[in-house]
Protein backbone atom coordinates (compact mmCIF):
# COMPACT_ATOMS: atom_id res chain seq x y z
CA UNK A 1 0.00 0.00 0.00
CA UNK A 2 2.97 2.29 0.63
CA UNK A 3 4.06 2.01 -2.99
CA UNK A 4 0.60 3.16 -4.10
CA UNK A 5 0.78 6.15 -1.77
CA UNK A 6 4.10 7.06 -3.43
CA UNK A 7 2.49 6.67 -6.85
CA UNK A 8 -0.31 9.01 -5.75
CA UNK A 9 2.27 11.63 -4.74
CA UNK A 10 4.00 11.32 -8.12
CA UNK A 11 0.68 11.69 -9.94
CA UNK A 12 -0.08 14.77 -7.88
CA UNK A 13 3.27 16.30 -8.87
CA UNK A 14 2.68 15.46 -12.53
CA UNK A 15 -0.73 17.07 -12.53
CA UNK A 16 0.33 20.25 -10.80
CA UNK A 17 3.82 20.90 -12.18
CA UNK A 18 4.83 18.84 -15.20
CA UNK A 19 2.05 18.14 -17.69
CA UNK A 20 0.91 20.76 -20.17
CA UNK A 21 -1.77 19.26 -22.45
CA UNK A 22 -5.30 18.61 -21.23
CA UNK A 23 -5.37 15.09 -22.67
CA UNK A 24 -2.16 14.18 -20.80
CA UNK A 25 -3.60 15.56 -17.57
CA UNK A 26 -6.83 13.63 -18.17
CA UNK A 27 -4.89 10.39 -18.68
CA UNK A 28 -2.94 10.92 -15.48
CA UNK A 29 -6.14 11.71 -13.54
CA UNK A 30 -7.64 8.50 -14.93
CA UNK A 31 -4.64 6.43 -13.81
CA UNK A 32 -4.58 8.20 -10.46
CA UNK A 33 -8.31 7.56 -9.97
CA UNK A 34 -7.86 3.89 -10.79
CA UNK A 35 -5.12 3.54 -8.17
CA UNK A 36 -7.20 5.46 -5.63
CA UNK A 37 -10.26 3.31 -6.28
CA UNK A 38 -8.68 -0.13 -6.46
CA UNK A 39 -5.59 0.05 -4.27
CA UNK A 40 -5.99 2.91 -1.81
CA UNK A 41 -9.70 2.34 -1.10
CA UNK A 42 -10.44 6.03 -1.58
CA UNK A 43 -13.34 5.25 -3.86
CA UNK A 44 -15.41 8.40 -3.42
CA UNK A 45 -12.35 10.55 -4.09
CA UNK A 46 -11.51 8.50 -7.18
CA UNK A 47 -15.03 8.85 -8.56
CA UNK A 48 -14.98 12.59 -7.87
CA UNK A 49 -11.60 13.02 -9.60
CA UNK A 50 -12.58 11.01 -12.68
CA UNK A 51 -15.99 12.66 -12.73
CA UNK A 52 -14.30 16.05 -13.11
CA UNK A 53 -12.55 14.74 -16.22
CA UNK A 54 -15.72 13.15 -17.62
CA UNK A 55 -17.61 16.43 -17.14
CA UNK A 56 -15.19 18.30 -19.40
CA UNK A 57 -15.11 15.74 -22.24
CA UNK A 58 -17.42 16.62 -25.15
CA UNK A 59 -20.17 14.00 -25.52
CA UNK A 60 -22.65 13.04 -28.20
CA UNK A 61 -26.40 12.78 -27.59
CA UNK A 62 -26.04 9.24 -26.14
CA UNK A 63 -23.51 10.36 -23.52
CA UNK A 64 -20.55 8.79 -25.35
CA UNK A 65 -17.31 10.73 -25.73
CA UNK A 66 -16.86 12.36 -29.11
CA UNK A 67 -13.13 11.64 -28.82
CA UNK A 68 -13.00 7.84 -28.83
CA UNK A 69 -9.67 7.82 -26.96
CA UNK A 70 -11.78 8.53 -23.85
CA UNK A 71 -13.98 5.42 -24.28
CA UNK A 72 -12.09 3.28 -21.74
CA UNK A 73 -12.13 6.15 -19.27
CA UNK A 74 -15.93 6.31 -19.58
CA UNK A 75 -16.13 2.54 -19.05
CA UNK A 76 -14.05 2.83 -15.87
CA UNK A 77 -16.05 5.76 -14.58
CA UNK A 78 -19.36 4.01 -15.23
CA UNK A 79 -18.17 0.88 -13.44
CA UNK A 80 -16.75 2.85 -10.52
CA UNK A 81 -20.00 4.77 -10.03
CA UNK A 82 -22.14 1.65 -10.42
CA UNK A 83 -20.23 -0.45 -7.91
CA UNK A 84 -19.91 2.42 -5.45
CA UNK A 85 -23.67 2.88 -5.80
CA UNK A 86 -24.24 -0.82 -5.13
CA UNK A 87 -22.18 -0.66 -1.94
CA UNK A 88 -23.57 2.70 -0.82
CA UNK A 89 -27.25 1.83 -1.30
CA UNK A 90 -26.97 -0.69 1.52
CA UNK A 91 -26.31 2.21 3.89
CA UNK A 92 -27.90 5.19 2.14
CA UNK A 93 -30.32 4.50 -0.71
CA UNK A 94 -30.44 8.14 -1.83
CA UNK A 95 -26.66 8.42 -2.23
CA UNK A 96 -26.57 4.99 -3.89
CA UNK A 97 -29.20 6.23 -6.36
CA UNK A 98 -27.06 9.28 -7.12
CA UNK A 99 -24.08 7.08 -8.02
CA UNK A 100 -26.29 4.93 -10.27
CA UNK A 101 -27.58 8.12 -11.86
CA UNK A 102 -24.02 9.21 -12.65
CA UNK A 103 -23.27 5.80 -14.17
CA UNK A 104 -26.44 5.84 -16.27
CA UNK A 105 -25.70 9.36 -17.46
CA UNK A 106 -22.76 8.33 -19.62
CA UNK A 107 -22.27 5.67 -22.28
CA UNK A 108 -20.67 2.50 -20.94
CA UNK A 109 -21.36 -1.17 -21.61
CA UNK A 110 -23.23 -1.95 -18.36
CA UNK A 111 -25.33 1.22 -18.36
CA UNK A 112 -28.56 -0.76 -18.29
CA UNK A 113 -27.68 -2.27 -14.92
CA UNK A 114 -27.50 1.21 -13.44
CA UNK A 115 -30.94 2.01 -14.87
CA UNK A 116 -32.20 -1.28 -13.40
CA UNK A 117 -30.95 -0.34 -9.92
CA UNK A 118 -32.47 3.14 -10.26
CA UNK A 119 -35.82 1.60 -11.24
CA UNK A 120 -35.72 -0.70 -8.23
CA UNK A 121 -34.70 2.08 -5.82
CA UNK A 122 -37.40 4.46 -7.09
CA UNK A 123 -40.36 2.02 -6.87
CA UNK A 124 -42.19 4.44 -4.56
CA UNK A 125 -42.36 6.92 -7.46
CA UNK A 126 -44.19 4.84 -10.07
CA UNK A 127 -43.58 7.09 -13.07
CA UNK A 128 -39.89 7.54 -12.32
CA UNK A 129 -39.45 3.82 -11.71
CA UNK A 130 -41.16 2.98 -15.02
CA UNK A 131 -39.04 5.56 -16.84
CA UNK A 132 -35.84 3.96 -15.53
CA UNK A 133 -37.17 0.45 -16.14
CA UNK A 134 -37.97 1.30 -19.77
CA UNK A 135 -34.40 2.55 -20.19
CA UNK A 136 -33.04 -0.57 -18.51
CA UNK A 137 -35.01 -3.00 -20.67
CA UNK A 138 -33.22 -1.62 -23.73
CA UNK A 139 -30.10 -3.29 -22.28
CA UNK A 140 -31.83 -6.61 -21.58
CA UNK A 141 -29.30 -8.57 -23.66
CA UNK A 142 -26.55 -7.69 -21.18
CA UNK A 143 -28.53 -8.88 -18.13
CA UNK A 144 -28.21 -12.22 -16.38
CA UNK A 145 -31.40 -14.18 -15.68
CA UNK A 146 -31.93 -12.66 -12.20
CA UNK A 147 -31.60 -9.14 -13.58
CA UNK A 148 -34.04 -9.99 -16.38
CA UNK A 149 -36.53 -11.32 -13.84
CA UNK A 150 -36.20 -8.13 -11.81
CA UNK A 151 -36.71 -5.80 -14.77
CA UNK A 152 -39.70 -7.73 -16.11
CA UNK A 153 -41.24 -7.91 -12.62
CA UNK A 154 -40.74 -4.16 -12.08
CA UNK A 155 -42.30 -3.38 -15.46
CA UNK A 156 -45.23 -5.79 -14.98
CA UNK A 157 -45.99 -4.45 -11.49
CA UNK A 158 -45.56 -0.84 -12.58
CA UNK A 159 -47.83 -1.13 -15.59
CA UNK A 160 -50.37 -3.11 -13.58
CA UNK A 161 -50.66 -0.05 -11.30
CA UNK A 162 -50.83 2.38 -14.25
CA UNK A 163 -54.25 3.17 -15.77
CA UNK A 164 -54.80 1.89 -19.33
CA UNK A 165 -51.59 -0.17 -19.31
CA UNK A 166 -52.94 -3.68 -18.75
CA UNK A 167 -51.60 -4.91 -22.09
CA UNK A 168 -48.06 -3.83 -21.24
CA UNK A 169 -48.40 -5.39 -17.79
CA UNK A 170 -49.45 -8.71 -19.35
CA UNK A 171 -46.61 -8.54 -21.87
CA UNK A 172 -43.91 -8.07 -19.22
CA UNK A 173 -45.53 -10.57 -16.85
CA UNK A 174 -45.39 -13.17 -19.65
CA UNK A 175 -41.70 -12.41 -20.17
CA UNK A 176 -41.16 -12.74 -16.42
CA UNK A 177 -42.97 -16.12 -16.34
CA UNK A 178 -40.80 -17.42 -19.21
CA UNK A 179 -37.80 -17.09 -16.92
CA UNK A 180 -39.36 -19.03 -14.01
Point out poorly predicted stretches: none
Q: Which structural class best describes the helix and strand composition?
A: mainly alpha
Measured by DSSP, the beta-strand proportion falls in under 5%
Give the H and E element order.
HHHHHHHHH
What does the radius of gyration come to? 19 Å
Number of DSSP-assigned strands = 0
H/I helix tally = 9
- The average pLDDT value, as a whole number, equals 92
Sheet with the most strands, sense and barrel status: none
CA distance, first residue to last residue: 46 Å
Polypeptide structure, described:
- The termini are far apart.
- The protein has 9 helices and no strands.
- With 180 residues, the chain is mostly helical.
- The protein has helices spanning 2-18, 22-38, 43-56, 71-88, 93-104, 111-121, 126-137, 145-160, 166-178.
- Helix 4 (71-88) runs antiparallel to helix 5 (93-104) and helix 6 (111-121) packs across helix 8.
- Helix content is 72%, strand content 0%.
- The model has no long low-confidence stretch (mean pLDDT 92).
Question: What labels describe this entry?
Answer:
mainly alpha; 72% helix; 180 residues; single chain
Amino acid sequence: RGQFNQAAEIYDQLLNKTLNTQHAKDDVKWDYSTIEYTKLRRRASAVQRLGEVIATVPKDSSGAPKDTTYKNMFENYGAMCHFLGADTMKINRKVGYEFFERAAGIAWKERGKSYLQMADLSKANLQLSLQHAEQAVKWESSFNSEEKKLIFRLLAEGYRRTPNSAEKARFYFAKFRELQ
